């Protein structure tokens, strides 16, 4: 695993969960919103985009990176988090500019 590197202007973090871990994931989502005061995306209990697991996303910037990434890594428990850059190239964002906190999860790259 390569730890995320802060080298882009904008990022997404996708927190993956399933039916058994949805309550825990929901609590992390609420903590990001209240403790870190960061906007969080919808709590998707369905597959969305290239993601083959349920997920929610956090949009953040280079200036928020050093606060969010260690916090997420500590708070995520056994959940996997995809951290990727947001550029004009969705494919590269989810491959070359993708980092994982936890075990890597397969993505459906044909949807990009």
Tell me what you see in this structure.
The chain has 112 residues and is α+β, with helices and mostly antiparallel strands. It has a single domain (10-104), classed as 2-Layer Sandwich (Alpha-Beta Plaits), CATH 3.30.70.1240. It has three helices and four strands; from the N terminus they run E-H-E-H-E-H-E. The chain has helices at 22-35, 62-75, 90-93, and strands spanning 10-17, 54-61, 81-85, 98-101. The chain has a four-stranded antiparallel beta sheet, with helices on one face. The protein is globular and about 30 Å long. The model has no long low-confidence stretch (mean pLDDT 96).
Strand content: 15-25%
Number of strands: 4
> What is the CATH topology descriptor?
Alpha-Beta Plaits
- Considering DSSP H and I runs of 4 or more, what fraction of the residues is helical? 25-40%
Number of domains: 1
Radius of gyration over C-alpha positions, nearest whole angstrom: 13 Å
Order of helices and strands: EHEHEHE
Task: Indicate the mean pLDDT.
Answer: 96
User: What is the CATH superfamily?
Assistant: DOPA-like domains
Low-confidence stretches: none
Bulk shape: globular
Please give the largest β-sheet: 4 strands, antiparallel
* Widest sheet: strand ordering: 2-1-3-4
Terminus-to-terminus distance: 23 Å
Helix-strand category: alpha+beta
Just name the CATH architecture: 2-Layer Sandwich
CATH level 1 name: Alpha Beta
Number of helix segments?
3
Pfam families: DOPA_dioxygen
Protein name: DOPA 4,5-dioxygenase family protein
């Amino acid at each position: 695993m390569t730890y995320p590197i802060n080298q882009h202007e904008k990022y997404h973090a996708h927190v993956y969960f399933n039916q058994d871990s949805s309550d825990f994931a929901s609590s992390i989502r609420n903590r990001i919103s209240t403790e870190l005061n960061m906007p969080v995306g919808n709590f998707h209990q369905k597959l969305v985009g290239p993601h083959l697991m349920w997920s929610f996303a956090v949009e953040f910037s280079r200036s928020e990176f050093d606060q969010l990434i260690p916090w997420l890594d500590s708070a995520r428990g056994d959940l996997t988090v995809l951290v990727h850059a947001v550029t004009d190239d969705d494919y590269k964002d989810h491959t070359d500019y993708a980092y994982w906190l936890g075990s890597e999860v397969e993505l459906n790259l044909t949807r990009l």
